[in-house]
Amino acid sequence: MATDRKTPGVYIQELDAFPNSVAQVETAIPAFIGYTPQAAVNGKPCWFKPVKIWSMADFLAIFGFPADPVTGQSPVQYAPSHYIAEHKKAPSKGDTYIFNGNVYTIEPDPDTVYYLYNSVKLFFENGGAQAYIVSTGGYGPASGSPVDAGGAIVNLNVKLADLIKGLKALLKFPDVTLYVFPEATLLSGGENGTLMEETLLQCGTMFSPMALFDVIGGRAPDPILWPQDIQAFRNNTGNNSLDCGAAYYPFLKTTATAIDDITYENLNGGKVSTLTDLLSPASAPNTAAADIINSIAKGNGLSVRENNAALMKASKLYQQILGIVQDKVNILPPSGIMAGVYSLVDATKGVWTAPANVAPVGVTDVTIRLSDQDQAGLNVDAVSGKSINAIRFFNGRGVLVWGARTLDGNSQDWRYINVRRTMTMIEQSAMHAVKAYVFEPNDANTWSAVKSMLDNFLTGLWQAGALQGAKSSDAFAVQIGLGSTMTALDVQNGLMRVNLMLAVVHPAEFIVLTLEQQQVTS
């Protein structure tokens, strides 16, 4: 009661009718770390600075190429170069195509391949609501030659030091809950392993984030030797903080890039004249296509889109080639898409629900169709225990996420993604709420208030389905008090200790139906 009142009168004193409450923290705020067309906020560069966005429009405003000031038309944001090469015989690896009776391959210039732009695009299409972008640089120069047919893409413009610097920039952003590196698979295998180890170490140190990884080799898996890519991934991830990471395989065929975004500028380094012999060979001349190519080479004053439309109309082979390039550009690592799936599942069902048995939006197929036997080696590994989640195609159902395990697949505690993320959410929510009691008296009144606050929070989670048990006492227990969680010396030292015991729900990963014949009794 106040003791400084000296004037007679009426005084108002308000009392809190309700105790403090625990606010659930956000659970699906990813940070995309990688390369963007540009990076500027209000005209000032923002390389290696985490910037929060809420839509693809935000991304384009900060990280995209600006629209033409005269026409107002937005430029193509991502335009990898592909080379059409003729071969005397089909290479042993990779896809081949027959044009005019000859064998060709169409492969990208590795130094023009980037994944972040399309990954962010599909993140929002799959339910993502907000994200941080850490731009580690713009697009680098092209190499001027294609990758070997069927070979791994290593982009020399993608630097391990850049990605690690972008990762470290997130140390001061504890609200980030997912780390995504769309371009990590464009590093060499050894550098990719270093990045994964650094990322898991930071996740384990910060407690709140989880990392989503892709497997090198998932873009163009060898039908027979693809398990070698899985083994290489497991060898490169290390053994620290495995419960803070999850991996997905293989890459996905998507619809991120429209056919209108692919033109002759994406072919043979943009040298349109190289298409003449292909589109108008001596054995079957196409004078209309040849005339358009010559007109473009001389500079006819038309826009690229106008010239491209004319060439597509003049040559069905050109349409076919652009379709092949579009398919290749649309092959993406799954991590960015999975970040959107996490966001969608968290928002509609809760973080305690496994982000699996979900059909990703904008995905048409996978680069390799795994069988039950194939997935067995991904899901359970007796030696390393590093589980890799399969994304599979099922007839009649399409593409589904068919796994929900962390990299710590042999752990009984942290085997499942939703268990790890639910515990992280509870830990962070409780930690922020209990901060209100720092410097409060370390006595029974404070202990009772803290226990009541946490009981209410956990009861709400139990009622929502995050905790299992027929009654709340079966789902959780909050312990705090002298002789229970603290000693007299703890109290004297200003230490308040709270124990939470939780029964988190686990996914029904294996459902067994038992069938038995019953003999007719009548």
How would you describe the overall organization of this protein?
There is one protein chain. This protein is α/β, with parallel strands linked by helices. 32% of the residues lie in helices and 14% in strands. The chain has 3 domains: 267 residues, 3-Layer(aba) Sandwich (Rossmann fold); 105 residues, no CATH class; 83 residues, no CATH class. Helix 2 runs parallel beside helix 10, helix 3 runs parallel beside helix 4 and helix 4 crosses helix 5. It is globular, with a radius of gyration of 28 Å. The model has no long low-confidence stretch (mean pLDDT 93).
CATH class of the largest domain: Alpha Beta
The overall number of domains is 3
Q: Tell me the span between the first and last alpha carbons.
A: 84 Å
Q: Helix tally?
A: 15
Q: What's the topology here?
A:
Blueprint: E1 30-34, E2 40-41, E3 44-45, E4 51-53, H1 56-63, E5 82-87, E6 97-99, E7 102-108, H2 116-125, E8 131-135, H3 160-168, E9 178-180, H4 189-206, E10 210-214, H5 226-236, E11 245-249, E12 252-254, H6 276-279, H7 287-298, H8 304-314, H9 316-329, E13 331-332, H10 335-348, E14 363-366, H11 372-379, E15 389-394, E16 398-401, H12 417-434, H13 444-464, H14 472-475, E17 476-480, H15 488-492, E18 498-502
Parallel strand pairs: 1-8, 1-9, 9-10, 10-11, 11-15
Antiparallel strand pairs: 2-3, 4-8, 5-7, 6-7, 12-13, 12-14, 15-16, 17-18
Helix pairs in contact: 2-10, 3-4, 4-5, 7-8, 8-9
